[in-house]
Structures are given as structure tokens and as C-alpha cells.
Amino acid sequence: MKKFFFFYIFFGVSVVVSQNKQLLYNWDVTPQALMLNPGSVVASQYHIGVPFLSQIHLNAGSSGVSAFDVFADDGVDINTKIRNTIFKLSARDFFTATQQLDVLNFGWLSKGFDPIYFSGGIYQELDFIAYFPKDFAILAWEGNRDYIGKPFDFSDLSARADLLTVYHFGANKQLSSKLTAGVRIKLYSSMVGLESTSNKGAFTTSQREGSNNVYEHTVVDLDLEVRTSGFLSLDGLDQSQVSRILLGRALLGGNLGLGFDAGMTYQFDSQLSLTASVLDIGAIFHSSDTEVYRASGDYTLDGLQLIFPELALGGSTIPYYDNLEDEIEREIPVDTLNIGYTQLRPTKINAALHYDFGPRVGDKDSCDCRSRATKEERVSQAGVQYYTIFRPRGPQLAGTLYYRRKFGNSLSVKTTYTVDRYSAKNIGAAMSLNLGNVNFFVAADNLLDLSNIAKANSVSLQLGFNFIVDQQ
């Protein structure tokens, strides 16, 4: 069991990520700002992303521990550091992983007196979260000798994962001189899914006075459930067969779901603006290729009564542990059900207040185009952003202060300072460069830890290439 938790912690501090994209939110120089707020102010006549390159999003980190805490060459025994990590973390600490790849992204401004900016595309997403099983980490590493009477809570076991493709189409419209709003419809096609988030029950070791057996082990009110989708049909297939099936599911052949995004920008005056968005209000309806595993019940083990048969007289050894396993399966059976289930998407909320100041950019002050009718283009912008994502054990929050600077019409840079569950010293930076109609952007987080990436609780990288034609 100690080996298991060594690999669990190793995985957790090495491959964990979050979904906050504070460097791209409110950064209207890239089309990807529309994906974070369908109600962003749009200055383009149309855009199209380079297929598979318009946005690549990777973000790694963990709450409560970094790889350096466990694997640093500091003379401390690694077993001691793993033990310290187990007791440092709580059951609300988590390991998450999110990766996104834009397959296609495009948009265009409709013609007419009251135009609408339409946008759409396809992206692939991996989303994973696992909470740290504090009680069972202690039980596995320490054993139960020093924890007589302590209930080990099965609710600590909580995880979910999704691999899916998202097809989306949105509309963005300036409703008045101050308000721009937008909405985006999403069709989810799940490739594989796994969820186990509502477990309960407790395991306790008690000391029994005056009994033949010193200890009594009990499992009380156990109710475990693991829901899976897409794994059953992949069993026994080789890599090429699995790839072919997953590709088919990505192309609307998986379990489907529906969702939507909504957002707005409100301009109080020519310099002060408020933006807000809510993303992924929706669900996936898993109806095919599903397996749901359930285990429930109570069980008490008083101990094993050892019997020593006379082997010389033809007796045989007694399979104590096989008998114990059979007994547990009788008392707490595991049911396998092929039933459908609904999985809610992790909804996200963004909000920001920003102020534009400094000289005007180029000759934009004379532009009377739709998106700049009441907003002067200034070289500098400062703002504050709020972010939350709803997870199985409650929302995860983040706050960001940011500054953006434009250098002419070609170069824009943005810096951020973010406080979240990962870190209180997350400094990020992003750059967007326009070469003619080609836009390239790159963004990275936790720059203070780049000299020793193992010390970072979170690390992110985003980049993309887009072809943009601005309004004239």
C-alpha cells in the first residue's frame, strides 16, 4: 500500500492542472476571448484559426503540494517527506487535469444595418479531478495500530474524468451603445467518462475488552458507486482499434450532451467597462456502453480463528484469505449495472471590471465601426477579475489583477497576478503579435518558478495562430 500512495502522490504533483484562463479573458486582441466571454466586444470582420493550432491549452499544478516538496534532493528521507505530505494535505486538496485543443475555430460579421458576429468551431477537451483520500492515505501508510476507534471515511474517495469533443456555435451582438451580449450553444460528444463522487460509509477498528479477539473491524453504512462510460467496448482491443473507436466517438458517435455559454460587456463610459460570463451550463447523457458499479452494506470482522490441521495425517491448509474474501463479497456484494446516467459539466463563471487609460491607439479614435462606437481604444488597460469553477466538493475560486499594454496595432502584452488554491504568488504574462492579418499569441503562468519548475504548484501554457481581418 505504501507503494500505491508513492505513485499516487507522484502522479498528483507531476500531472495536475486547472481550467482558469485569466491571461486570455478580456484580451480582445485574440479570437479566443470569445470562447471565455461570448459577449466580448469584437473588432473583427471575420477570423479563422489555423486548424489544430488556433489554441493549445495546457495547465499543470496541484493544491497543497509541489513536486519539490516530495522529490527535492535535500538530505531528507523520501519516506519521511511522503508521510509529511500525507499529513499536510486535507481531504479538500485535489489533483486536476485539463487540456484543450482547438480543432477548428472561425467567425464572421453579418452584413446589414444591425450586424451580428457569428462564431463556431470544434475543440477536444480532457477534464480530470481527484480529491486527496486523506483517511485512506493515512490507513495505507501508517496502518491502523495507532488509530483504534478512528473512523476512516469513504467519502474521501472522490474523482471524475471526461474525454470529449465539443461542437459550438455562437452569436454576439451590440444591443445598445453600452451593452454587448452573446450566447454560445454547445453539443458535447463524450469519448470516455468516469465518475465516483457521492460515496459514504466508514471503516473502524475497535478494541474489545474481555473478548477472545482483541480487535473488531467494522464497515458501517457503506455506499460506494463508480459510474463509467465508453470503457466496456474498448476491453481487449489493440491501440489502433481503440484509436479508431475514439475517433468515431469524437465525430458525434459518442454519448451526447447539450450546454450553453452566455456573456456580456457593459460600458459605463468610454473607459470603464464590466464583463461577465457563465460557461458550460449543461450535461452529458450517458446512455450506451455504460457500466455502473455499486457496493453497499455493513460488515464486521472479529478476527480469524486459526486452525492447524495435522498435515501428516492428510489434512490440508485452510485458505483463510480466500474464505474471508468470499465472506466480504457475500456481506457487501458489488453489483454491475448497465444503466444510463447524467453527468453535469463543470460550470465556470468569469467577471471583470477594467479601465482603459493612456493615449489612444493609432488612428482608432476616428473609427466609427460597430465594436468601437462608444469605446476609445487606449494603449493601457488595468482590471480585476473573478473566476470560479463548480466542482464535486464545492466551488474553486480565483482572483486576478491584470495590466494590458498595446504597442501600436501589432503588439499587445498582458501581465497578471493571481491568487487561488494553488498559489498566492502566481505571476503570468502573455504576448499577442499581429503580422499583417496573422495573429500569434503565447501565454504562460507562474513565471517566478520557471527557474525550478518542480517548486511550482501550477504551470500553464497557451498558444495559438489565427487569421484575422479587422473591420474597416
Could you walk me through the main structural features you see in this protein, from its secondary elements to its overall organization?
With 472 residues, this protein is mainly β. Helix content is 15%, strand content 49%. It contains seven helices and 21 strands. The protein has helices at residues 2-14, 33-36, 67-71, 78-88, 134-142, 239-253, 320-331, and strands at residues 44-49, 56-61, 94-109, 117-131, 152-153, 159-174, 179-196, 200-207, 215-229, 255-267, 272-286, 290-301, 334-337, 341-344, 348-360, 378-391, 394-407, 411-420, 426-435, 438-444, 458-470. Strand 8 (200-207) and strand 9 form a beta hairpin. The chain is globular and about 85 Å long. The termini are far apart.
Number of domains: 1
Individual helix count: 7
Quaternary state reads single chain
Helix content: 10-25%
Helices and strands, with pairings:
Layout: H1 2-14, H2 33-36, E1 44-49, E2 56-61, H3 67-71, H4 78-88, E3 94-109, E4 117-131, H5 134-142, E5 152-153, E6 159-174, E7 179-196, E8 200-207, E9 215-229, H6 239-253, E10 255-267, E11 272-286, E12 290-301, H7 320-331, E13 334-337, E14 341-344, E15 348-360, E16 378-391, E17 394-407, E18 411-420, E19 426-435, E20 438-444, E21 458-470
Quick tags:
single chain, 472 residues, mainly beta, 21-stranded antiparallel beta sheet, 21 strands, 49% strand, globular, disordered N terminus
